[in-house]
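I have a small job for you when you get a moment. Can you supply me with one protein entry, sequence and fold together? It will help me judge whether the discrete encoding reads sensibly. Write everything out right here, beneath this request:
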Amino acid sequence: MAEMAKQRSPNFSMQENSLVSQLMGEEYKDTGLSRHKYNIHRFTSKISRVTKNEMWAEVAEMFSANTTGPHRTADQLENKWENNVSKHRGIYNDHQRLLSLTVET
């Protein structure tokens, strides 16, 4: 008997991408770090996988409260954020390199 293929989630809209970026740019609790910086920060006595999972759960909750689109889990949002960062890192680095070349002239 053939099994049903797992159905893909709908693609993220531009508004959903913007909302994820906005949420990740905001300061996380009283850490003095944005959620993005908190997420990439190495593990310490105060930052662990558990606390990062709690942060992503809060992001998912705030995301759901501010969007009318499909429900997104914390894992889906984390994967989307990692993909966005990975995709745009090269573009940002090229931009920074070009800025440094124009300053030196």
Notes: Residues 74-103 form the longest helix (30 residues). The chain has a mean pLDDT of 90.
